[in-house]
């Protein structure tokens, strides 16, 4: 398979685009394995692994509705293009006022097209909901956001998923991780990317020590092969749970850099880890040959 990474239409904080190559090298899949992803977020990991059968789940209903709308044909790349052209024009004319109009409309109707529009024009491509389940991310201050090239990019991203859904048996379900992990039987591989503890303050995205222990219990009970994305260390501290809660797992670490603001001095390093409950030798991705799907430019 070529080295291109497909970037999905919905963005989310903590998106694992940069880790996809490392994850793909280390998953343990044979052709019939069911891919289970209880914290799908943007879906970037599973969408690039491209398993034949997959169960994608998330507790955020808007992510799941969006992909189910593509699956059912309720939205497709042509509909998305026309919608973004119309609403992009209105954003250009109405600026921030129009953004907040769409935000209100989305909080009333929960339209997947509005969700996409907001996600691609809000501040930093974030997904955040308050206690009343209302999307509350402010405007990204770019009224000319939906240029022709940007709309083509998003349309192609939707088309990629559309094409995958014609080839593969992929299901999208809104439910908590414990239900997802308990659901399937047989040969499965579970990839987990839960929120990082205490990092975000969001209705659908909170996480603490209790949740982590519960996740560990569910995974062990399932007896499946699993991979967990977790933060390992930064300049100030190490993640203590790696050697306690997850001490039965094998670890691969990966350092990456992120910026806070534009200054070079604000370049920070963070080490993330992949934890696995199977030995390196059982990594049999070579047997997994995803069908070709055209990558968007
Ligand atoms: C770090 S993000 C996943 C990012 C994803 N791997 C990616 O690369 O885009 C965590 C996701 O877990 C979901 N989530 C949070 N708590 C959950 C729970 N209890 N059960 C299921 N999903 C949950 C959030 O809605 C969010 O989409």
Under the CATH scheme, the architecture of the largest domain is 3-Layer(aba) Sandwich
Structural shape:
globular
**Ligand roster:** S-adenosylmethionine
From N to C, what is the helix and strand string? Answer: HEHEHHHHEHEHEEE
Mean pLDDT: 90
> What structural class results from the helix and strand content?
alpha/beta
Q: For the CA atoms, what is the radius of gyration?
A: 19 Å
**What is the CATH superfamily label of the largest domain?**
Vaccinia Virus protein VP39
Strand order within the widest beta sheet: 3-2-1-4-5-7-6
* Secondary structure: helix percent: 25-40%
Annotation, overall tally of beta strands: 7
Largest sheet: 7 strands, mixed
Roughly how many Å apart are the termini?
16 Å
Number of H/I helices: 8
The percent range for strand residues is: 15-25%
Total number of distinct structural domains: 2
Which CATH first-tier class of the largest domain would you pick?
A: Alpha Beta
- Uncertain parts: none
